Amino acid sequence: MIEYIKNWYQQNFSNPQIVILALCLIVGFTSVLLFGDLLAPLIASIVIAYVLDGVVGLLQHGRIPRLLALLLVFLGFIALLILILFGLIPKLSQQLTQFFRELPGMITQGQNLLMQLPDKYPTLAQIITEEQVMELIDSLRAQLIAVGQNFLSQPLESVVGLLTITVYLIIVPLLVFFFLKDKRKILVWAEGFLPSNRELTNEVWIEVNKKIASYIRGKVIEILVVWIATYVTFMFFGLKYAMLLSFLVGISVIIPYVGAAVVTIPVMFVAYFQWGPSTQFVYVLLAYAAIQILDGNVLVPVLFSEIVNLHPVAIIAAVLIFGGIWGVWGVFFAIPLATLFHAVIRAWTSINKGSWQKQQALPDA
Question: Which of 13, 25, 142, 330 could connect to 323 by a Cys-Cys bridge, CB 3.0–4.6 Å?
Fold first, then answer.
């Protein structure tokens, strides 16, 4: 057994390039895993800088000097941040508060509807009893009302929470600005901590860096497009909580496959209790389904056709694994991280295969 492990180690880690790549990955993942909470502003700043750097690059291609392009993009980012803080967040908070206040009435309507089902469908009464329906409703009512009361009774009253948010609102824009301004200096400084003999690491980094940057920009575009399209659609039909529901639909694209299925529940819930089983209810669901179909079959292939070539099972597994480790950040970066592992395994296999072929060729030489 020991001999087998020794042979496997020599076969896979005899090349120093592989050892350097493995050490870089271990140090990187360990740092994020242990210090993820402390590094949250830094990670958020890097993500935002990734997105904005692409816009700066586009302006540079239009023969605008980098410093001027950087200032224009950064000022646009600050304006967007102000709009979110003083326009979007109050609107979302208001609609969420109103939703939880009307939730008990919705639950009562749902209870009356469920209680009528045994009369309309006698065979159903033989499968599900009235007591089971009441227990389900009571349990659901207690949980939802508890969540609503917790939300309504605990606004941002914590001084520590307010101070933390205020500090983040100052630190993150500053970090974003310096990441954009001193991008090359920071990359050169970071390379100074790496070994000089790192060709394989550089090869993997170039491939993954390009895909991660493109993925983040594409995902931001997808969120905005789906959010705006859904908001316009819901406003056209007059659906309640249009901003809140469209925001949830836009954010749901972060989690492939699962997000769209989960966010469908509140959309159906609100639409049904607003219009009941009417044609308006059907039209809203058909329009919502059309948005999801266009997103999955038109928008995603256009934005990610050359970025993500992973099987759906691999994507879902990556979401579950990295989401369980790093929460929201893990879910957002699940596909780039899966792409990273795919690139590492491919490079590892390629270099081991090359080494094995050289060893096989030595006796014949």
Answer: 330
Q: How many CB atoms lie within 10 A of CB 260?
A: 19
Residue 157's pLDDT is 47
Q: What sign has the CA pseudo-torsion 223, 225, 231, 237?
A: negative
| Cα–Cα distance measured from residue 180 to residue 192, given in angstroms and rounded to the nearest whole number | 20
Is 0.85 surpassed by the pTM of this model? no
A 10 A CB-CB count for 205 gives: 17
Return the residue matching tokens 């893990």: 330
Residues 208 and 214: their CA atoms lie apart, in Å, by: 10
- Token readout for 85 is 């803080």
Q: Where are the alpha helices (DSSP H) in 121-153?
A: 122-127, 130-153
The vertex-317 CA angle with 313 and 322, nearest 5°, equals 150
Of the candidates 141, 104, 96, 134, the residue with the CA atom closest to the CA atom of residue 118: 134
Q: Nearest CA to 172 among 59, 73, 55, 39?
A: 39
Residue with the larger pLDDT of the pair 159 and 177 = 177
Residue 42, Cα to own-chain centre: how many angstroms? 17
